[in-house]
Structures are given as structure tokens and as C-alpha cells.
Write a structure and sequence with these properties.
Elements: E1 2-3, E2 7-10, E3 13-15, E4 24-26, E5 32-34, H1 42-53, E6 61-63, H2 69-72, H3 75-81, E7 86-90, H4 91-98, H5 100-116, E8 135-137, E9 142-144, E10 150-155, E11 164-168, E12 173-175, E13 182-183, E14 189-190, H6 197-208, E15 214-216, E16 222-224, H7 225-252, H8 257-270, H9 279-294
Parallel strand pairs: 5-6, 6-7, 7-8, 12-15
Antiparallel strand pairs: 1-16, 2-3, 3-4, 4-5, 9-10, 10-11, 11-12, 13-14, 15-16
Helix pairs in contact: 6-7, 8-9
The chain binds zinc ion (ZN).
Length: about 300
């Protein structure tokens, strides 16, 4: 099944509204949130957390897949309002959040969204001011949230260098950020190897071995059953097809990356109209993907 709305996924596991942005709540003995959307969602998330946990102060941990603004955005706001909340991420993500440049980049990328969604937070200060990571997660470690909610940390670099995925063997559920691509409106999966094509493929190959019944994607969709079981292999196939296409187009254009970006932008973005990402970030990401393939990194 392809789920396209927020709410209960199974008992104890919830997608917080809005589904366009990732924020998954596990109501375990140690209630925990996985990813934290964009800044403007802060007050809505608190409302949702109260709805599912009763008292928002019960929330103990926020686990972050990677240091992008649309995955970590509300973390500082949530920490300001929920004093007992602690944040866990990869070592690299923890270092990124310490850099003033990274914080200002997150702020500037969040700004457009804050202006468009002012009504969602009114007078509240949702600023991403700084973020201290309280616990560094290592590849392969197991985290026990109590009551049978245990998950494994899997390093999945490639989309970004700091990427982590979280796998719950008990319910065969995976939270993977953009490590397994992003499907568009036609459910065409777009690979997201912004940092490294090779790492992205190696990460996806690791994920493809998992026995999955639930995949909580980073944007728009949750997959269950058949759709979840088929997704990771399909995503890997699409990654090979897409990189072959980039290589072919680079050949056609005598290595001119800019013209390859324009050609794919026209074919995938303008002609289909199926990609939900805004034009500017789409083009920035596409340029990074062409670069990763051109430089074979
Ligand atoms: Zn990302």
C-alpha cells in the first residue's frame, strides 16, 4: 500500500502531519521522534506529539537521519520547548551542526518556507539558532526504546556524507531519509546521490538486503506490504538507469555538464510536471548528481 497522509501507521508508530516532511513518532517506553521537518512545522508537531503522547514532555529523543534543513529544522525549537528532549545523529551531522555556516544555510533555506507558512506558527519563534547533538550514533549499533521497540543504526552515505538509516527488525520498518531516493507524483523514483554516487549505490545495496514491510520515506509517502518489499530493489535499478542516462548525455554533449542538467531538467521536470520539489533546489541537486557521475565519485 502507498500511504499519502499523516496519522497512525501501526499501533505506536505515527507520521506527524504534514506527510510532505518527515517526522515519525514512536510511542515506545522511551517516546522518540525520527526526523523533524522544516522550522515552520514546530508548533504543529508539538500539537501532534501532545495528541499521541498526552504530555509532550514525555518525548525523550529525536533521531536525525542527516543534517539537511528539511529533516532537522524543528529540532532547536522542540528542544527549547521540551527541556528533557535530547538529539541523536551521526558524528558527521553533529560536526555540521556546530558550524556557523551550516546553521546560516539552514536558516536561509528555511526562510522561504517560513514566509509561505506564517499562519502555522504565528508569533512563535521557530528559528533554527543552533543545535547540539547529545548522542552520536555509530553504524551497526542497536538502540532500545523499550517495550520491544528496538532499531539498528545503518550508515547510508551518498545522499549526504552524514546519512543514517534506522531499521526496526521487530516490525520490519525502515526510516531512510533520501538514501533510497524520492518518488514523484507518477511514482517514478528519483535517485538522490548528491554527495557520492558510489557511496549511494553501496548504501542502497545494503538496504536492499533488509526484510521490509514498512518504509517511511523522507517525503510524501509511506510504503507498506508489497510496495515496501519491491521499493528498494526498484530504487537501486532506477539509480543505475539514471546514472547510465547521465553518462550517455555527457557523451552526447561532449562532457558539458550544464547542458546535461538542462536536458534532464526539461525531460524529467518540465515535461512530466511530476516532481514535487521546487525548481531551485531541484536544479542545485541535479547539478550535484551530474557532477557525482561525471567525476565518478
Ligand atoms: Zn536530504
Amino acid at each position: 500500500m502507498i500511504i499519502q497522509k499523516a496519522g497512525k501507521i501501526i499501533d505506536g508508530l505515527y507520521a506527524l502531519s504534514d506527510i510532505d516532511l518527515p517526522a515519525y513518532l514512536v510511542a515506545a517506553e522511551t517516546p522518540s521522534l525520527f526526523d523533524a521537518g522544516i522550522t515552520f512545522m514546530g508548533p504543529s508537531y508539538r500539537k501532534e506529539i501532545r495528541r499521541y503522547l498526552g504530555d509532550e514532555n514525555r518525548l525523550r529523543w529525536l533521531f536525525i537521519t542527516h543534517a539537511h534543513f528539511d529533516h532537522s529544522g524543528t529540532a532547536p525549537y522542540l528542544k527549547r520547548h521540551i527541556p528533557g528532549l535530547k538529539v541523536a545523529a551521526s558524528r558527521l551531522a553533529a560536526e555540521i551542526f556546530k558550524k556557523p555556516n551550516a546553521v546560516s544555510l539552514i536558516q536561509s533555506l528555511s526562510q522561504d518556507f517560513e514566509e509561505q507558512h506564517k499562519t502555522l506558527f504565528g508569533n512563535e519563534d521557530v528559528t533554527f539558532d543552533s543545535l547540539e547533538v547529545d548522542r552520536v550514533l555509530e553504524d551497526g549499533e542497536t538502540v532500545d526504546l523499550g517495550g520491544g521497540w528496538t532499531f539498528q543504526v545503518i550508515a547510508t552515505p551518498g545522499h549526504t556524507r552524514d546519512g543514517l538509516s534506522f531499521y526496526f527488525p521487530g516490525i520490519k520498518a525502515l526510516i531512510c531519509g533520501e538514501s533510497a531516493g524520492v518518488p514523484d507524483r507518477n511514482f517514478m523514483i528519483h535517485p538522490e546521490f548528491l554527495a557520492s554516487y558510489k557511496d549511494y549505490v553501496a548504501s542502497l545495496e545494503k538496504l536492499a538486503f533488509l526484510d521490509v514491510e514498512i518504509i517511511m520515506l523522507s517525503h510524501f509517502y509511506i510504503l507498506t506490504g508489497e510496495e515496501a518489499r519491491n521499493y528498494l530493489k526498484k530504487s537501486l535499478e532506477n539509480t543505475f538507469v539514471f546514472s547510465d542516462r547521465i553518462r550517455k548525455y555527457l557523451g552526447d554533449a561532449s562532457g558539458n555538464r550544464e547542458s546535461v542538467v538542462r536536458r534532464i531538467f526539461k525531460e524529467d521536470y518540465q515535461d512530466t510536471g511530476a516532481i514535487q520539489q521546487a525548481e531551485r533546489p531541484y536544479l542545485i541537486n541535479l547539478t550535484a548528481k551530474v557532477k557525482a557521475v561525471a567525476e565518478n565519485k
